[in-house]
Amino acid sequence: MKRRASSPPPEFYSTNSMPTARPPPQMIPHASILMTASNPTSPFTSIFSTFRAELDEHHDRRERVIKTSRDITALSKKMIFSLQRARDVPAPLPSSIVGDITTRLANITELFSSIVPDLQGANAWRYQRQVSPGVQEFVEAVSFQHYLTTQRLITLEETQRLIPEGVVLMEDDYLLGLYDLVGELMRFAITGMAMGGKLPGGGSRSDEMQSGGETEDLGGARKRNVVQDLRELRMRFEGMDTRGGTLGRDVEKKMEVMRTCVEKVENAAYGMIIRGRERPKGWVPEDRAQEVVESY
After folding, report:
1. Is 272 in contact with 197 (CB distance < 8 Å)?
2. For residues 95 and 185, what is the distance between their CA atoms, to the nearest angstrom?
3. Contact status, residue 242 vs residue 277, Cβ threshold 8 Å
4. Alpha-carbon span 138 to 135, nearest angstrom
5. pLDDT single digits (tens) 268-283
6. What backbone torsions phi and psi does residue 215 show, to the nearest 5 degrees?
7. pLDDT per residue over 21-74, tens digit each?
8. pLDDT single digits (tens) 161-178
């Protein structure tokens, strides 16, 4: 005999008694990971406190390096302004310029020494982009001074000896500083032509015309002028392969500026020589009869 299934109770079919969803259990964090003032013994509290201290130290160190780099840049520019008062090359600098340069160079050395502790170990690479602008401007200033007195480029080793031990001179900063040197040589050459009527570094104006820019000193050695040195620099820079990396991007920006600077000096020299050949010796302008303009 089959057993008849029992029917559900009547309240099962009632619309007023539909089953409701059970509320989810409340998520209560484990007591060991609570990081509140009432739980100072959490293992994560000391870890994040260490992270905070390291980040604060990093930002303070980075700001010190940036500020020092800006101060070095400003002093290096003032060195360049003083050196632009020179009028010939190679020649000893006037005593007034030497005194100014010596004072500013000592101040720059002190600034470099102040950030030596911040540039030790891996930090030398970590903050390289922050100190780089000041180093490049310093290379530009000391290379300009070296050129005015010797008429040659300062080497990487010679430049490193001018920087306190502990601050590494990167080859990229040295090269980019030489790119900026071209602009200062352009100003120096054009100012020399405007005030002295000849290219700095060459002989007399008549000798330059006869030799095409090269003259001989008493020992028979060829004397080079600024235009020839700038052309030599342009040739060397254009022959370098700096593709790839951050150096390639920086060089690409400075290359066009360097070429423009050299072309400006060339055009000024061409104009000076052509006007000198067209002007007869002893020619005097009508409105300046009291001044005798010497021809080439």
Report:
1. yes
2. 21
3. no
4. 5
5. 999 888 876 666 665 5
6. -130, 165
7. 565 555 555 544 545 555 556 777 788 888 888 888 889 999 999 999 999 999
8. 999 999 999 999 999 999
Residue carrying structure tokens 């502790």: 117
Q: Please give the pLDDT value at position 293.
A: 41
- Distance CA(57)–CA(62), nearest Å, equals 8
Write down the pTM of the prediction. 0.74
- 148: closest CA among 104, 100, 97, 197? 97
Long-range CB contacts (< 8 A, 24+ apart) of 145-148?
145/79, 145/83, 145/93, 145/101, 147/89, 147/181, 147/185, 147/229, 148/83, 148/86, 148/89, 148/90, 148/91, 148/93, 148/188
What gap in Å lies between CA 169 and CA 160, rounded to an integer?
A: 6
Average pLDDT over residues 104-124: 95
Q: What ranges in the chain are assigned the alpha helix state H? A: 43-83, 95-114, 123-126, 128-150, 156-161, 171-196, 205-211, 226-238, 245-278
The three-class DSSP label of residue 170 is coil
Give the span between the Cα atoms of 31 and 38, in whole angstroms. 11
- The answer to whether residue 18 scores a pLDDT higher than 70 is no
Residues 6+ apart with CB under 8 A from 149: 89, 90, 91, 92, 93
Nearest to 76 by CA among 150, 4, 182, 184: 184
Least confident stretch, 117-121, 133-137, 209-213: 209-213
Q: Note whether 62 and 127 are within 8 A (CB).
A: yes
